Task: structure prediction
Amino acid sequence: MSTMPVTFYSGEFYDHNASVIVPHDACNLAAVWAFASSSEFVDEVRKLDRSLKPSNNVFVKVPFDLAHWQQVATEKYPHGLPKPFSSDPTQWLFNGHPAGSDQPLHVAVARLLGYQWPRQTGSSFPDCPALAPDGLERFADEDGIVCLSATKGEAPAAERLRALLAQALGKFDLPALLASAGPKGSKAASLDDWLRDDFFEQHCALFHQRPFIWHLWDGHKSGFSALVNYHRLTHATLEKLTYAYLGDWIRRQQAAVEAGESGSDARLQAAKLLQTRLKLILAGEPPFDLFVRWKPLSQQAIGWHPDLNDGVRLNIRPFLAQDLPGGKKGAGLLRAKPNIKWEKDRGKEPARDKAEFPWFWGWDGVTPDFAGVGKEPDGNRWNGCHYGNAIKQAARQSRT
Result:
């Protein structure tokens, strides 16, 4: 708020931290925009109000030289104001293509995993229509699972990513792409190294610690690793990852052990432990359960049945529940730890039924299967509760 960034307003809802400036005459829009997007506008506002968040009415008190800013707008926008556009993949307006993107490698990985941006799935915005297919759809993985090593008859991730980049960019400079990947670039020598060591941590940073491509691994440097499109990670897809992809890897490591291949035993044990953890997530018993504080106990998921509308913060929790040997502290089954916490949120909830929302009745921050205490709810917004399948099932049955 200190710099008062501006953007074009196209009718969306907004809260009290934003203000809309509407010219009486639409012909003056370019002049108003030229002024509002300039540093002079901020300076003039600060002369009237130096608080962190200026009051809404201060913006219309700022002196405005219409003739001057009409001239500025004419020189700056000879063909009229530009249409909405963003090369930033964190923005809804982004077209979803690696070419021209701020982050071509990250966009390419997302497309390889089958992710598409809103305009590619039929959404449109003022002066920003929905987009037709761009030819990269044929590279998208059908189930949203791409293993870093060749597995189950599929080529390794780096090879598939290189093919997509060639189609999207034509001839490309890989060292330059790697050096500019993520917020701080990468020193990786190859696509495989970047995918294995740098991608996920960069992805978390780029998308504000709410990753939609998850890098799952077994903690062994040369062990099993897979990129997964979280939006497609249903119970059936997680079963496929656990038993088909990882199962194929385990069978190959078992064969390598029997053949006396060096290091195969350690890879086998790491993969089996990962499979065990994934099975626990599928079952959903604490600490691998899903918990959503605003849903009644009878509607809490039993096993891995996430609702995307509940958000990454809550749905990723089972995968971070227990660390793997060789993995990063706090990262669970993921290659890196997203900056996500499940501590109590600010604010209070209104009174809720104790049987359906027992966590609003004095949870101590520790006790699993908490049933509620006290005569009055405290409304604290806890996100770290754990409930077993038996108590969830009992709640469901009591509602039928």
Notes: The chain has a mean pLDDT of 95.
